[in-house]
Amino acid sequence: MRTFIFFCYFSVFGAYSSNVISQDATISIDNDKVVTVDEVFKSISEQTNLKFIYHEDLFKNLPKVSLKKGSIKVDKLIQQCIGNADVVFNFTDNNTIIIKSENKSLKTNVLNDNKSQEIIVSGIVFDANNQPLPGANIIEKGTTNGTQTDIDGEFSLKLKNKNAVLVISYLGFLTQEVAITNQKELTIRLTEDAAGLDEVVVVGYGSQSKLKLTNAISTLKAENIVDSPVTSFEEAIAGELPGVQIVQTSGDPGSSSQINIRGVGTLTANARPLIVVDGFPAENFRIKSLNPSAIESVDILKDAASAAIYGSRGANGVIIVTTKKGKQGDVKFSYDGYTGVQQVANTIDMQDAYERARYVAEARKTRGRAPLELYQPYLIGKPGLTDTNWQDEIFRTAFVQNHNVSISGGNENMNFFVSGGYFDQDGIVLGSKYNRMNFRINLNFDISKKWKAGFNIAPSFANRNKVSDADHKGDGIILTALITNPLFSPYNSDGSLNLSGDMLLSARENGQAPVENPVALALLNTDKRTQFDILSGGFLAFSPLENLSFKTYLGGNYTTSNRKAFSPNTVGAYSIFVDDKQATAFKSFYDRKNWVVENTVTFDKKFNDAHELKLLIGQSYQTENINTTGSSPLLAQITDDNGVLTTTFPQFEEEWSLISYLSRINYDYKDK
Question: 3-state SS string over 239-264?
Answer without folding.
Answer: CCCCCEEEEECCCCCCCCEEEEECCC
